[in-house]
Queue: 4 jobs
Job 1
Amino acid sequence: MNSAANITDWDDYSLSFQSVMPSQMLALNREVSSYMSGEVADYGCGAGKIIPFLAQQAGVTGYIGIDSAAEMVAKATWMAAKFPQMDSRLICEKIENTTLPPVGSALSINSHYTWPDTKAILQQIYRQLRPGGLFVLATINRNIDMARLLGEAEVEMIAHPHWQQFKDHNMKISQNDGLTLKSLNELISEVQSVGFSVVEAHQKLYLGGLNFLVLEKN
Ligand SMILES: C[S@@+](CC[C@H](N)C(=O)[O-])C[C@H]1O[C@@H](n2cnc3c(N)ncnc32)[C@H](O)[C@@H]1O
C-alpha cells in the first residue's frame, strides 16, 4: 500500500462521501454517465454515487463496481438496491486483482490519484474493455484548490449533517503529498502509452482542478 492509500481512509470517509453531493460533483457524475453504454465497469466506485445517474441512462444495460474499501462497497450495494431496474454487481477487491468479462464502457472518478501503479491499472482497464468502448477517466490535478472548491460548495451544503466531516476529509486528502497528481498533458501521454485514443479532454470542472478524459479503445 502506498502512502496515499494509508492516509486516505476510505472506509471512514464513506458515510459523508455518499451523502454529500455538491453541484460540482453532480455535474461530474452527469457528464461521465452521458458517455456510458452497455455493461459499465466503475473502477474505484466508492459509495456508488454514479449509480442513480447510470440507471437513467438509455443504453446502459448493467453495472459492475469495483472498490477495495469494504464500507464503500457496502454503501454502493445499498445504492444499487435502490435502482433494481439496472442489473448491478459490486466487487470488494483491488482493481489490480480483478478479472472481468469484457465490458461495453468504463469509468473511473477520482481514484487514479491513489493507485500504486497507475500505468499497470490503466493497462488492465484497457484489456477489460471491448474494442470501440469508451473509458472516462476523471481525476484531480495539480491545480486543485480544495479550499476554494469547498468554500463554493459550502453555500449549498452548510446545513448538511455530514458536511463538516466531508470537508475535513477532503482537506486532509488534498494535503497528502503522496497523491499522483498529473497535468492534463501528462495524463494524456500516460493513457496513450497504454493504447487509448483521446476523444475529448478538458479541465472545465472543479474550478480547473480536475482532468476529464474521454478515451476509446481502438
Ligand atoms: C475519492 S473515492 C471516489 C469514489 C467514486 N469513484 C466517486 O467518485 O464517487 C476513491 C475510491 O477509490 C478506491 N480505490 C483506490 N485505489 C483502489 C484500488 N487500487 N483498487 C480498488 N479501489 C481503489 C478507494 O477505496 C475509494 O473508494
Note: The mean pLDDT is 94.
Job 2
Amino acid sequence: MKNAKRILAVVLSLAIAAGVLVTTALAAGTTMGDVDFDGTVTVEDALIVLRATAGEEGVSLTAEQRAAADVTYDGHVNSVDALRILLYVSGQISTLDAVGGEEGDDIIL
Ligand SMILES: [Ca+2]
C-alpha cells in the first residue's frame, strides 16, 4: 500500500511538472470529477481525492464529493479515481463519463 501511494505521488508530481495544470471544462450537466464543485475538473480535484483517500488529517469528502469523485463507477473512492481525474485533466483520456475510455485515448483504465 505504501508503495502504491509512493508510485501515485511520483506520477502526480511528474504530471504536474509536465505542466498539466490545465483546466478542462465539463460538458453541460456533468459534474463527475469536479470534487470541489467549482465548475471545472482540475488537478486540484485529483489532489483532493488523493489527499482524502490517503487519510490526510483534516481532509475528507462529503457524500456529494464522494459521488463526484467516483469516476471509476465502482462504488469506492480511491487513488485510482484521483489518477483517472488527472488523466482526464492532462488529456490522456477523453471522458470521465464512462469507464473504459474511448478510441484514441492514450490510456484506458
Ligand atoms: Ca473542480
Note: The two ends are 19 Å apart (CA to CA).
Job 3
Amino acid sequence: MAEIKTCKLCGKLFEGNQLLETCPPCHEKDEKDFDRIRQYLDIHPAAKVFEVSTSLNIPVFQIKRYLREGRLEILEKNQRFLLCERCGKPISSGYYCDECPKELPHNYKSYYAGAGLKGKSRAKDLEEAAKKPRIRYLSKDR
Ligand SMILES: [Zn+2]
Ligand SMILES: [Zn+2]
C-alpha cells in the first residue's frame, strides 16, 4: 500500500512503500553513484575511501552510508572511519561490532540526518578519517 513518506536524502515528500526510504529521483541517483563506485573498485581494487570520493566526486558521508548499509566493506582492521554505533570499535561494515547486540533497531535517521547537518569540524574529521581505509565491494550473494 502506498503511503506518503519523507525522502531521507532530500527531505521531499513522496508516495512510496515501506521499503523505500528515498524518493524515486534520489533513489535513482543513489543507485547510479553506487554503480560508479562498484565500477571504480573493479578497476582499482581496495581503493581508499578518500580516493574514491575525490575521483568520483561522491561525498565521503555517502560512501560511509553504503558501508553502513552493508554494500561496501572496509579492509583495514584499525581505522577511525567506520565505528560501532554502540561501543565505538572499528568495524568493516554495518552499524555494530560482533559483540554488540544485533537486534538493536537500525537507526537510519542518525546517519541520514547527520550527513546534512554536520558542522564543519565533523565533516573535516570524517574526511581526515577517510584518508586511510581501503574499501571493497561487498557482494550480497557470497
Ligand atoms: Zn529525494
Ligand atoms: Zn560494539
Note: The two ends are 32 Å apart (CA to CA).
Job 4
Amino acid sequence: MSGSPHYDAVVIGGGFYGARLALLLRRRGERVLLVEREAALLARASLRNQARVHNGYHYPRSILTSLRSRLNYARFLGEYAECVDRSFAHYYAIARGTSKVTASQFAEFCRRIDAPLSPAPDHVVALFDPARIEAVFLVDECAFDAVKLRDRVARELVDAGVEIAVNTSVDRGSRIVDHGPSAVDEVRLTLSTGGEHRVVSAELVLNCTYSGVNRLLASVGASTIPMKHELTEMALVVPPAELEGAAVTVMDGPFFSLMPYPSRGLFTLSHVRYTPHCSWEESDRAHEAIDRPQATRFSHMVHDAQRYLPSMRAARYVDSIWETKTVMPRSEQDDSRPILFRRSAEVPELITVLGAKIDSVYDVEEALVAELSASRLTPLAS
Ligand SMILES: Cc1cc2nc3c(=O)[nH]c(=O)nc-3n(C[C@H](O)[C@H](O)[C@H](O)COP(=O)(O)OP(=O)(O)OC[C@H]3O[C@@H](n4cnc5c(N)ncnc54)[C@H](O)[C@@H]3O)c2cc1C
C-alpha cells in the first residue's frame, strides 16, 4: 500500500450518477471519497438537461429502452416524489408525413409498453396546424427539478458519511501493483484543488465524469471508449399564454420539445436539428467546446416550432443552457439509450459508467452490485 490517504473507493464526478454510486458504496460499509470539479454537485449534465423523466414514450424505435424507462419511471417517482413537477399536462403530437412513426403506430407502441395514452382535448388539438400534425395525445410524463435533486442527494451523502471534495479535479492516476502477501492492487490519483495537489489511493475507482470519461481513462493510461459528443443548446423561454400548463413534444424526427425546467421556473425549447451546434468524436475536445461563446439558435428553433404550433411565435426567449452531450455511437442508429458499464482492461480497479438518462442510474447500480458481488478485486460486505 502507498502512504497516501487510502479509500476503499474513489468516485470521480459528482453528477447524479457519481453521487448515487458513492452513496451505494458507502451504504455497503465502504470508505468513499467523491470528487467533483465544479463548486457544487449536480452542476453539469445532471442540471443542464431537458428535465424529462422518461416514461418510455420517447423511444418508439427501441422497445427495450421504453420498457426499462417505464420501470425506472415508477421507481424514480417513488423515490424522488418531492423533486418532480407534475403540475402540467404533457402532449405528444405526431407529425404528419415526415415522422418516423404514424399516429396509429405510436398508439399501438404505447399499448405494447402499457403506457397511459388518451386523445388530447379538442381545444388543445386546435392549437396545432392540422396540415402538419396528424394526432395529439395526452401522456403521463413529468419533469424533475435538478436543484431539488441536488439538495436531496447532497444531504444523503453527508448523512451517510461520504467524503466530498468539490472544486477538485482528478488530473492523473496510475496503477500500483502490490507484490506483497496481501496482494491488493490500487490506483493512485492526483487531485487538484485550486492549484494545490494531493495524492489519494483506492482499491476501486469509478469514472462517472460523463463527457470527460475518455479524458480520465487516457490520464490513467487506460484505453478509451468510442463516444460521440455534441455541444447542445436549449433555449430557456416563457411559453405563450395559450400553452400555459402544457408541455409539448413533437414526434418522431427533426422536431421540437417544450418542457418545464422547474429549477428556473421556465421552459426549455429544444430542437432535434438546432439544439446540437456541433459534434465530435475525439474525447479531448469535450470540455473545450462549451467554453466557446456561441450565438443562440432560438430564432431557428421557434421559427420551425411555429409551423406545427402557431402560438409558439409568442414564446419569449430568456436565456440558453449549454452542455456537452455524450452518447454512445450505437444510440444514433436505433435511438436506444443503453448504459455503459465497463471495467478497464489495463486498470482493472477502474470502472467507467455512462447513462443516457437520469433514471438509467438504477440500471447502472444493478450492474455495479452484480460486478462487486462477482469480483474478487473488491471484496465488499453485502
Ligand atoms: C442537452 C441534454 C439534455 C438531456 N435531457 C435529458 C432529459 O430530459 N432526461 C434525462 O433523463 N436525461 C437527459 N439528459 C441526459 C442526462 O443529463 C445525463 O444522462 C445525466 O445527467 C448524466 O449524469 P452524470 O452524473 O453521468 O453526468 P454529469 O452530471 O455531467 O456529472 C459528471 C460530473 O463529472 C465532473 N467531472 C468531469 N471530469 C472530472 C474530473 N476529471 N475530475 C473531477 N470531476 C470531473 C463534471 O464536473 C460533472 O459534474 C440530457 C443531457 C443533455 C446534455
Note: The pocket of flavin-adenine dinucleotide is lined by residues 12-18, 35-38, 43-46, 49-52, 54, 169-170, 208-210, 212, 216, 232, 234, 323, 325, 355-359 (CB under 6 Å).
